[in-house]
Structures are given as structure tokens and as C-alpha cells.
């Protein structure tokens, strides 16, 4: 690239920066977000964990309740346990429905986990609350959707709440501020690779 | 739900578990994955950070190079710096092209960051390497795609490499084992909310 090209690039970037500043000047609000990660692809829980890391790093107080994961030791637990003042991490599930094979017990487990989420959301000292795989238990009708929407709509103004899991209900997407659909393009399960440490847990 | 319903549920779940076990028995391989997070939605970097957290929690050694982020203090940096034995975290960018306004300098910055990624990938003691926003610099032609593909294809067998950023090149998607497109459903920027701690940085 010669000098004239370099100058044209710099000029173009100055204009782009000015245009961006005009746009960004309109983005002035801060508010607690209701965030939903759904879709069939990988990354729903991982992206929520990434946000938890960022929040911890800013000294925020975070509550995490996992609705499906429980007994299994996960990498996230080992890290979050190193920040007991910042993050309360509660894997409260008992695995998948086909493992427990007991619907009444699944419903009771879900209720106990949801009570914990409700407690955290009601407490404005939590800057972020993650309800991991909540969409899964909603899909099974283990919790009434109306009750969940009511609790979410009454969250403290500045608190971020993240809900993950495939098949997010339409009404939840409607209520949310930030929704990403993790769309599967390629998954290694398809070529016979098993769940691996650091990736899936 | 009455007793007969409960029994039917348990029976259905036993069958589902058996079917799943048959499928899972075919997922036996372990291998280092080439992972790509792309798409216009939020969650590409966050999901990569979540995987870094899981890897750290399992005592793995992780290298992170950020191609765009640099000067800005991020939440992830504060947390990862608490695990100096596990994670080498290098924000090596200087911001966006419209901020630097200097194409030659951007290319030189990219080259320095890429040299660091190459060093990590060549070293099998790294269990995971994250090249954050590499797709962005590829899009600007700040690095030759062929060189990047060659380095990625020569990575150690058991090492996971994660590449993030929108507009992943087709050839990279082709080469990858796990690809998720973070599809934007709703983004709070659209309603005037600015980038916030814990969410975007």
C-alpha cells in the first residue's frame, strides 16, 4: 500500500469514527438486562459463564443456579469457588429426566432450585443472576411459565438476569432485552467425539 | 399426575436412557477441537471465555490472545490474572480500525499478536488457545488466510483452539470441528442501552 492509499484509509477511518461517535452518543442508558441464550448450538451456558467472569472481574455480586447439572464436577465450579465473596454457585440439578426417571422428584428438585433463583432476584445486592438451563425445565412444564415471567418482570432495575437452554418460550423472548440464538453449524458429537473437559463441562 | 402416569413417565425415561446410552457408546474419541464462534449476535467471545474458565477449573494450561481489545480494562483480565499458573492472558489489540486510523500500524499490531498465537499453538503444553477476534483481522486482510489455516491445521492433536469474531471465512468453517453462529434475535443497543460492565467487557 502506498502513501496515498494510507492517507485514504486514515481519512475513511476518521469519517467512520465520527459516524460511530454520533451513533454511540445515543446509547446512554444503563439498565439491568434480561438476557436469553437459546438455540440448538453449543455456547449457551459457556457464554453465560463468560458474562459471570466479566461481572466477577468488576467486583459485582453474582448468583448462579444450575437446573440440570448437579453431582458432576465442573470446571466452572472450581474457578467460581475461588471467588466466594463474589459468586454464589449452586449446581442444584440431578441430571437429565432420563437419568432420574422420576417426574415427581424432578418437579420437586426444580422447585427447590427456582426458590433459590427467586430469592436471588428479589435481593438487589445481586448484580447478576444466572438461571442455567431454566428453559429446559420450562419445556417439561416443571414450573409454571406465568410464575417465571412474573418474577423476571419484577427484578430490580439494575440487575442482570441470564436464562439459558434450548427452546426458550416465545413469551420469554418477548420479555427479554438481549436474545441470542446459538445456531449449530457443526458439532463434533456427529463425528464420534465425546464430551470433553474444558469444552462441555 | 396419578400413579399410572408416573409409572408411564418412568418407563418412557428408561427407554430414552437406553437409547441414549446406545448413541453415547459411539462417542468415544477424544481430540483437540478447532472451534469457531461467529455470527452477528452477542456471545462469541463470552462463550470462549466460558470455555477458558472450564479449562482452568480442570487445571489445563490456556493461552489467550485478543486481537482487538487492548488498553481497556476488562473483567476477564482481572479474573484470569488470579490464575497465573493456568492462563496466559494477552490483550494485544489497539482498538478498532476507526480508532487507530493507521492501516500499517494495525497490520503490524496484528502480526505481533499472531506471532504470539503461533508460539502458543506450536507448544503442546498449551491445552487450549483462544485467538479472540481473529476473524475480524482476517476480514480486513491484515493476515494471509492461507498462513492462518496452515498453522491451525498443524496444531497438536489434543490441543483445543478457539477462534472468534463475526464473518468467519468459509475455509475456516470448513476446517473446524465445532462451529456456532451466534444469531442476533434482540440486542439492547437498538433501544439505546450502552455497553455495560459484566456484559460487554
From TrEMBL, chains A, B:
InterPro entries listed in its UniProt record: CblAdoTrfase_CobA, P-loop_NTPase
A GO MF label: corrinoid adenosyltransferase activity
Region (Disordered): 1-20
One Pfam family it belongs to: CobA_CobO_BtuR
EC top class, as a word: transferase
GO biological process: one example: porphyrin-containing compound biosynthetic process
Catalytic activity entry: 2 cob(II)alamin + reduced [electron-transfer flavoprotein] + 2 ATP = 2 adenosylcob(III)alamin + 2 triphosphate + oxidized [electron-transfer flavoprotein] + 3 H(+); 2 cob(II)yrinate a,c diamide + reduced [electron-transfer flavoprotein] + 2 ATP = 2 adenosylcob(III)yrinate a,c-diamide + 2 triphosphate + oxidized [electron-transfer flavoprotein] + 3 H(+)
Pathway(s) served: Cofactor biosynthesis; adenosylcobalamin biosynthesis; adenosylcobalamin from cob(II)yrinate a,c-diamide: step 2/7
Subcellular location: Cytoplasm
Biased composition (Basic and acidic residues): 1-10
One Gene Ontology cellular component annotation held by this UniProt entry: cytoplasm
Annotated SUPFAM superfamilies: P-loop containing nucleoside triphosphate hydrolases
UniProt keywords, alphabetically: ATP-binding, Cobalamin biosynthesis, Cytoplasm, Nucleotide-binding, Porphyrin biosynthesis, Transferase
Enzyme nomenclature, EC number: 2.5.1.17
Matches recorded under NCBIfam families: cobA (TIGR00708), PRK05986.1 (NF004637)
Primary role: Required for both de novo synthesis of the corrin ring for the assimilation of exogenous corrinoids. Participates in the adenosylation of a variety of incomplete and complete corrinoids.
PANTHER family: CORRINOID ADENOSYLTRANSFERASE (PTHR46638)
Family: Belongs to the Cob(I)alamin adenosyltransferase family.
Official protein name in the record: Corrinoid adenosyltransferase
Organism, as annotated: Novosphingobium sediminicola
Amino acid at each position: 500500500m502506498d502513501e496515498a492509499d494510507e492517507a485514504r484509509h486514515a481519512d475513511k477511518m476518521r469519517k467512520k469514527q465520527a459516524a460511530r461517535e454520533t451513533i454511540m452518543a445515543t446509547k446512554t442508558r444503563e439498565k439491568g438486562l434480561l438476557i436469553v441464550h437459546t438455540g440448538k448450538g453449543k455456547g449457551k451456558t459457556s457464554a453465560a459463564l463468560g458474562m459471570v467472569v466479566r461481572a466477577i472481574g468488576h467486583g459485582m455480586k453474582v448468583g448462579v443456579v444450575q437446573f440440570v447439572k448437579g453431582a458432576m464436577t465442573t470446571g466452572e465450579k472450581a474457578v467460581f469457588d475461588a471467588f466466594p465473596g463474589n459468586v454464589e454457585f449452586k449446581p442444584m440439578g440431578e441430571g437429565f429426566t432420563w437419568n432420574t426417571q422420576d417426574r415427581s422428584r424432578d418437579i420437586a428438585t426444580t422447585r427447590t432450585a427456582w426458590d433459590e433463583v427467586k430469592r436471588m432476584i428479589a435481593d438487589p445486592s445481586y448484580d447478576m443472576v444466572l438461571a442455567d438451563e431454566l428453559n429446559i425445565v420450562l419445556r417439561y412444564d416443571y414450573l409454571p411459565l406465568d410464575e417465571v415471567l412474573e418474577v423476571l418482570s419484577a427484578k430490580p432495575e439494575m440487575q442482570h438476569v441470564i436464562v439459558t437452554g434450548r427452546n426458550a418460550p416465545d413469551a420469554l423472548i418477548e420479555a427479554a432485552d438481549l436474545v441470542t440464538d446459538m445456531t449449530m453449524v457443526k458439532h463434533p458429537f456427529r463425528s464420534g467425539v465425546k464430551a470433553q473437559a474444558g469444552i462441555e463441562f
